[in-house]
Amino acid sequence: MTPIITSLLDTDLYKFTMWQAILHRHPQNEAEYTFNCRNTTAYPLAELVSDVNEQLDHLCSLRFTAPEQAYLRGLRFMRADFIDYLRIFSFQREFIHAYADGEHLRIDVKGPQVHVMGFEIFVLSIVNELYFRRSDQEAALAEGRKRLAGKIELLHEFSREMPRRHPFEFFDFGVRRRFSRAWQREVVEVLRDQAQPYFRGTSNVQLAMELDIVPIGTMAHEYLQTYQALGVRLRDFQRAALEDWVQEYRGDLGIALTDVIGMDAFLADFDLYFAKLFDGLRHDSGDPVVWGEKALAHYAKLRLDAHTKRLVFSDGLNLPSALSLYRHFGDRVTLGFGIGTNLTNDMGLRTLNIVMKLTSCNGQTVAKLSDSPGKTLCDDHTFLAYLAQVFKVAAPPVPTA
Per the database record, which ranges form the Nicotinate phosphoribosyltransferase N-terminal domain (predicted)? Predict the structure, then answer.
């Protein structure tokens, strides 16, 4: 079978930035990650288990090449000792297990966090590409190219609008749910060549290196969730995570993710100290306009000039929704838009809503209570209720049999 992953750089930048921070500060962590599909599929994903295992075997044979190490070393926020660690790193097959459970595909990861946290994006890319290989490739690619041309035309139309104070900028965040590796590359090449000055980079580190564009990314939920299990008071876990990030990156990578416990609980911890140290905030759940207005009100309350900050939106966006948010906020704050599935898997096919989330660390359940309750992935309802109580937010309902 043709390998889907051929480079360990074929993943999101924030996997490396979180990986480095955890290696430096909590290298002893043990972690568990769990794969989940949130929607109905055209055929049972369990049918893919043999192919998934073959792809995982290949993934675990890969190493970072010398040119890849050199590229990462050239990013000013990557430390020499972390690159030296990557030089000898390879995924260990014993830490990941894919198997069929009835019609469901189960993928469990368990081991030292610095050895297993990198599996996530590769697993999601593998499952997606295997799943869509069964579709009519010629028809899907024809439709994808047609829709991509429509996006370019939409940007041309947008260019005739009256400019706002801050520019419109968007990024490719589509590694994990892409139609295929080859299609993501084609999309990014087209955007690089035809969507200037609006297209500003990609989260895919391999494409950033090979196509000479900017790699984009800071942190994801797993980074903050990890701190729920590190011995600090649960109420203080967000502050502890943000503080370690500041100490690790000292001004670089200054976009904080806000929805592990919801925006209100995040802002309660995001005081003047953090608001000055971080360049901005990233939205990933809940109503984006409500979220953005809360962010701007918070900066105003702290007497900080919002024009010096950035709001990044990344929750299920397409180009029209990103432009709509830009028209709403573009005169008030610098903006960025991370678009994923609607760039790299807009083929006229029903997409997979698959995730692979950190579910425990050091034997302790971890969870998020985002502003979109459907994104919760945690079976420990006692912990969810406790987490909600500590942060004074609504707990998700307990499923009934």
Answer: 9-128
Q: Which CATH superfamily is domain 13-134+351-366 in?
A: nicotinate phosphoribosyltransferase (3.20.140.10)
The Cβ of residue 308 has, within 10 Å, a number of other Cβ atoms equal to: 12
Give the C-alpha separation, 159 to 155, whole Å. Answer: 6
What is the distance between the terminal CA atoms of the chain, rounded to a whole angstrom?
Answer: 41
Report the distance separating Cα 39 and Cα 12, nearest Å.
Answer: 23
Residue with tokens 């729920």: 228
CATH annotation of 137-215+254-344: 3.20.140.10
Separation of alpha carbons 198 and 192, rounded Å: 9
- Tell me which residue has tokens 């890319």: 125
- Name the E strands within 173-239: 199-202
Contact predicate 318/150, CB 8 Å = no
- Range list of β-strands (E), 117-253: 170-172, 199-202
Bridging pattern class, strands 96-101 and 104-112: antiparallel
Of 190, 200, 271, nearest to 236 by C-alpha is 271
All CATH 3.20.140.10 domain ranges in the chain, comma separated: 13-134+351-366, 137-215+254-344
How far, rounded to the nearest angstrom, does the alpha carbon of residue 100 sit from its chain's CA centroid? 26
N residues, the chain: 401
Per-10-residue mean pLDDT of the chain, 401 residues long, equals 96 98 98 95 97 98 98 98 98 98 97 98 98 97 98 97 96 97 98 97 98 96 97 96 98 96 96 98 96 98 98 97 98 98 97 95 92 74 91 75 42
Under a CB-based contact definition with an 8 Å cutoff, are residues 353 and 39 in contact? Answer: yes
CA distance 397 to 377: 13
Q: What angle do CA 382, 388, 391 make, to 5 degrees?
A: 140
Rounded to whole angstroms, how far apart are CA atoms 393 and 286? 14
Q: Which helix (H) or strand (E) holds 192?
A: helix 181-194
CA atoms of 154 and 143, how far apart (whole Å):
16
